[in-house]
């Protein structure tokens, strides 16, 4: 099982980006996929997650109303639409799931928001 994250980049404050997390080796019908981020010198934090079975979502308070997580089971992909980006959103973003009790992480995709 592998996760491939992409979509990061450099954007100005109040701009938007959409991150993608594509899974291979497993069909994302009954999983929880999470997005995490880690800024330099800070601990990795959970940003958002979604249940691919019923679409239940979670957001950390700092991104509520700005970020939207969604899924496309047919494409085996989870998206994170990020709007109204702020410099404090600058971080490496990772997607993660669990498979047979083990954490599976995608590689990071860098998001840099300039003021």
Characterise this structure.
The chain has strands at residues 2-6, 9-12, 17-24, 32-38, 45-51, 57-59, 67-72, 77-82, 91-99, 102-105, 109-114. The chain has 115 residues and is mostly beta strands. Strands 2, 4, 5, 6, 9, 10 and 11 form a seven-stranded mixed sheet that branches. It has a four-stranded antiparallel sheet with strand order 1-3-8-7, with no helix packed on it. A hairpin with a 4-residue loop joins strand 7 (67-72) and strand 8. The chain is globular, with a radius of gyration of 13 Å.
Provide a compact summary of the structure.
The protein is mostly beta strands and 115 residues long. The protein has strands spanning 2-6, 9-12, 17-24, 32-38, 45-51, 57-59, 67-72, 77-82, 91-99, 102-105, 109-114.
SSE blueprint and pairings:
Blueprint: E1 2-6, E2 9-12, E3 17-24, E4 32-38, E5 45-51, E6 57-59, E7 67-72, E8 77-82, E9 91-99, E10 102-105, E11 109-114
Parallel strand pairs: 2-11
Antiparallel strand pairs: 1-3, 3-8, 4-5, 4-9, 5-6, 7-8, 9-10, 9-11
- Count of β-strands: 11
Q: Which class do the helix and strand fractions yield?
A: mainly beta
What is the percent of helical residues? Answer: under 10%
Order of helices and strands: EEEEEEEEEEE
Task: Kindly estimate the percentage of residues that lie in beta strands according to DSSP.
Answer: over 45%
Q: Describe the main β-sheet briefly.
A: 7 strands, mixed
Which term fits the overall shape? globular
Rg (CA only): 13 Å
What is the count of DSSP helices, taking H or I runs of 4+ residues?
0
Q: Low-confidence runs (pLDDT<50, min 5 residues)?
A: none
Terminal-residue CA separation: 38 Å
**For the residues shown, what is the average pLDDT?**
96
């Amino acid at each position: 099982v592998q996760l491939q994250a992409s979509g990061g980049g450099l954007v100005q404050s109040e701009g938007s980006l959409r991150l993608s997390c594509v899974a291979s080796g497993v069909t994302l019908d009954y999983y929880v996929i999470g997005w995490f981020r880690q800024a330099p010198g800070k601990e990795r934090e959970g940003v958002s997650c979604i249940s691919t079975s019923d679409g239940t979502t979670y957001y950390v308070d700092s991104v509520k109303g700005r970020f939207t997580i969604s899924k496309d089971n047919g494409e085996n992909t989870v998206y994170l639409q990020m709007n109204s980006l702020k410099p404090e959103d600058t971080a490496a973003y990772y997607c993660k799931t669990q498979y047979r009790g083990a954490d599976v992480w995608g590689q990071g995709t860098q998001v840099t928001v300039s003021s």
